[in-house]
Amino acid sequence: MKSPQLLRTSALAVMAAITLLGTVGVSVAHAAAPMVKTSAPGYFRMMLGDFEVTALSDGTVNLPINKIMTRTTPAKVDKALAKSFLKSPVETSVNGYLINTGTKLVLIDTGAAGLFGPTLGKLLGNLKASGYQPEQVDEIYITHLHHDHVGGLLLGGQVAFPNAVVRVDRHEADYWLSQANMDKAPVEIQEFFQKAMISVKPYVESGRFMPFDGDTELVPGVRSVSSHGHTPGHSTYLIESKGERLMLWGDLMHVAAVQFDEPGVTILYDTDSQNAAVQRKAAYADAAKQGYIVGAAHISFPGLGHLRANGKGYSWVPVNYTASP
Q: For the chain, N or C: smaller number of CB within 10 Å?
């Protein structure tokens, strides 16, 4: 007969073997699980005074940054990207911003819908995921009429925001909605005109397209600020509540890894690259001096942060993540 001590030792050995086998089995099962390869819903929420700000992702798109930046060289762009552990093409965010003032629901830019490739067009779905419906949007303010900012006005050729008024600087509307300007433009630029015209046409026809002139308070706490250069009527939007401020830049800048260190670097899509650089430098200096929050259409989602002067350039400091604004 085996001793009690030997029996206990044998039992422990069996239990250990069973545990080991179970662990191995579980590990194999986990390793075989398919990769999900998707992220959380593309919205981020914060408070600005009494206003609720929701950043909305339209998705990301790969851009050949070293081929489309101007007033620089591809080698310099590659070097700047490498400092941020990036290389061209760069997966680039397309962001919009929803402002709930308590009395108005205002959307700044609408994303691309289907006008800029299959990886974009997620803004409307993310707006719904964030707890809002497109029917609730009262006003839509467009920074400029490039199709990655205005395409989301339509869904399947129909109005996506049935109760919203659409507003943009009059210089922008006069330029991009002109058949004469399109006819004079290079062939490769004509699609910008066509897509702008298609996107706003139903709102024009229903009397809900209302251009404004320059710096204008559009609703209490939301003001347009002229920043012409990237396009003829490009506008930024100042959001202010209880002394807290957020400046939404649109395409005042595009590539954080390049243009914060070198504000003079421009992009192929600028209508007036010289003035675009002037506007960017002034905006950078003001944001760093005043310390307000900035939101940008193509900084990595949610594209919200502060600017800090750093020698001749600037450093980007993203806002702190919050789950309960």
A: N
